[in-house]
UniProtKB/TrEMBL annotation:
One cellular-component annotation, GO: cytoplasm
Organism this protein belongs to: Acinetobacter pseudolwoffii
Matches recorded under SUPFAM superfamilies: FAD-linked reductases, C-terminal domain, FAD/NAD(P)-binding domain
Signal peptide: none
Entry keyword Oxidoreductase: yes
Entry keywords, A to Z: Oxidoreductase, Thiamine biosynthesis
This protein's name: Glycine oxidase ThiO
Length: 375
């Protein structure tokens, strides 16, 4: 079976990996360069930031992130020579209003990856002595939470796919038209007038997905939301754990880089960083770890998240079409939902019984329910 995947962000790429595993051939399209919109720009936390604030459908997909990425890393690294750098640092959360909610969530679901404990000041300083102990006396600690170095993840996946004999690449190729006859997509057309055929078609266009609304005959409530990030360079292993307070976070990398974020702004498709946002992120992160001010700020950037009203992505067959499929709308959690999203999509496309999650909460048929989702 030949499958066209429109969109080469992490959701499209993980879908391609899963479909190749099942013996399909794949053509991957992207209007830019693979992985350059949201996937490379995020922090790489392998969990929703405050899982208890999200619908169960988000957490159900996300809890597969760490084991699935570990499996893919073992498979791809011998071929590509690139390690995803899954870094098991744990996470400290300082939002006092979330202490009880977080502990109750961990107790309810008994997920080994979401074990949590409330730390007193002595325990907190033992876990992470960089924290400002004058300001923070307690924290919830999630010891099993990890982060992944998303640029390296993308480099490895893209390298593997570009070496694969059953993958064709079409970068800088913007698909603008689905050519539909009697409920079937027969081909797609690019902005430059090229035509491409396939047996099945996957739309994984992230923040640009609402652009398909008219052609698909339904309103797609996905909009771009800009997020900005900062990068510091510290000594290796300088910051022992991830830290979060008031939706701002610090994420340590193995080589001493520390990623700080993040903002949320609705500014269309603008990816220009701003001095104002830089100051907001700096203030929040230095409040947690004041010593970070002693190290160089090496980079600021912005990416575009594909927001959906409830944060639940659309995964499955698109209504009224026999061979078109959705995998979009992952909002802030695309990186941690992508592996399970790709596996679910492949199982549905190949008429297999879904084993990874129940597909119903993600069904694109919800796009036809005007009472549930409105642009």
């Amino acid at each position: 079976m030949h499958i066209a995947i429109i969109g080469a962000g992490i959701t499209g790429l993980m879908s391609a990996l899963e479909l190749l595993e099942q013996g399909c051939s794949v053509t991957i399209f992207d209007q830019q360069v693979a992985g350059q919109a949201a996937s490379w720009a995020g922090g790489g936390i392998l969990s929703p930031m405050y899982p208890w604030r999200y619908p169960a459908a988000v957490n159900t997909l996300a809890r597969h992130a760490k084991p699935l990425y570990q499996d893919w890393n073992q498979k791809l690294q011998p071929v590509t020579g690139i390690d995803f750098q899954i870094h098991e640092t744990g996470m400290l959360i300082f939002d006092e209003d979330d202490f009880e909610l977080g502990l109750r969530y961990a107790e309810k679901y008994q997920d080994p990856q979401q074990q949590a404990e409330l730390l007193d000041q002595t325990q907190l300083q033992q876990i992470n002595p960089r924290i400002d102990q004058r300001k923070f006396k307690q924290a919830i600690y999630f010891p099993e939470l990890a982060n992944i170095r998303n640029p390296r993840l993308l480099q490895s996946v893209i390298s593997y796919l570009k070496q694969h004999p059953h993958v064709t690449w079409q970068e800088h190729c913007k698909i603008t038209q689905l050519n539909i006859q009697q409920g079937w997509v027969t081909s797609v057309s690019s902005e430059s007038g090229q035509h491409f055929q396939a047996d099945q078609f996957v739309i994984a266009t992230g923040a640009w997905s609402a652009g398909w609304s008219e052609q698909l005959g339904c309103e797609i409530p996905v909009q771009p939301v800009q997020g900005q990030m900062l990068l510091f360079k510290t000594p290796e292993n300088w910051l022992p754990s991830m830290c979060m307070n008031k939706v701002m976070y610090l994420i340590p990398r193995r080589d001493g880089h520390v990623v700080c974020g993040s903002s949320m702004r609705q500014v269309g498709f603008d990816t220009s960083p701003s001095a104002e946002i830089r100051q907001d992120i700096l203030q929040a992160c230095l409040e947690m770890v004041p010593e970070l001010a002693d190290f160089p700020l090496v980079k600021q950037w912005a990416g575009l998240r594909p927001s959906s009203p409830d944060g639940i992505p659309y995964i499955g067959k698109i209504p009224e079409l026999q061979n078109a499929w959705a995998n979009f709308g992952h909002f802030r959690n695309g990186l941690c939902m992508a592996p399970a999203s790709g596996k679910l999509l492949a199982q549905l496309m190949l008429a297999q019984t879904p084993t990874i999650v129940d597909p119903q909460p993600y069904a694109p048929a919800h796009l036809l329910e005007p009472g549930r989702l409105v642009l």
